[in-house]
Structure prediction request, 241 residues.
Amino acid sequence: KFLVFPNMYNFSLGLPMHYYRSFNNLRRITSSAKPPEFDRQFVNRNPRNLEKLRIAQKPRGYQLDTPTKEYWNKIFFQQSARHITAWVEHFTGYKVASASTSEWCIKKQLYSTKDVTAALNIGRILALRCQYFGLTELHSCFSEKEREKSLKLHKFLCALEEGGIDIVEPERFYPPHPLDHIKHPNPLEVLEENVPDNPPAGVNQKDVSYVFRGFTRLNPKHPRVFPRTRLIDQMSVKDEK
Prediction:
């Protein structure tokens, strides 16, 4: 029946067409409102929203990958014989933001395009462009030894941090398992007004917001061992006093 007369059945409602037509006519009689009009073309104006909520898919790669593949946005720093270039690359392969001393608007303001001052200013410009784009947390694969060997790289990363960019990317949120010892809060349920404004002595306000949002920045070596409950207990004791 449905193969011979495909128009006799409405597959969206799971009803024959005469039932669907009767419901449609009843709606027109009982309601004088116009049927809702929907735009057939949908444009996502905030594609980085799921990454902000820490629920977007992040490539995990293999455990022995060096450098790791587990990131959303990664910082790249390149030095050539004449210029310094830095950019932020998404894990899909396209460049999100970039800055280079080869750009005329940057080159004409610098004395040299390859010294330490140039690297410092490239970090400032890239941090500003990332802020315009909406990126505040990036993945950095540079080790401490690399920063000690290269003064340009060290100044570049320091300029990024001074510009409001965190070079430690938060971990992806996974639904907790019933047998987990520590259950991180769901970032969808944590609001900014729920983060306390008066942390205990010796605790930074930014670190407190990281803990309440479920990040593990305070103890990167052992991320699941950080005593989040102890920090909350300290705040409750302080409030009681």
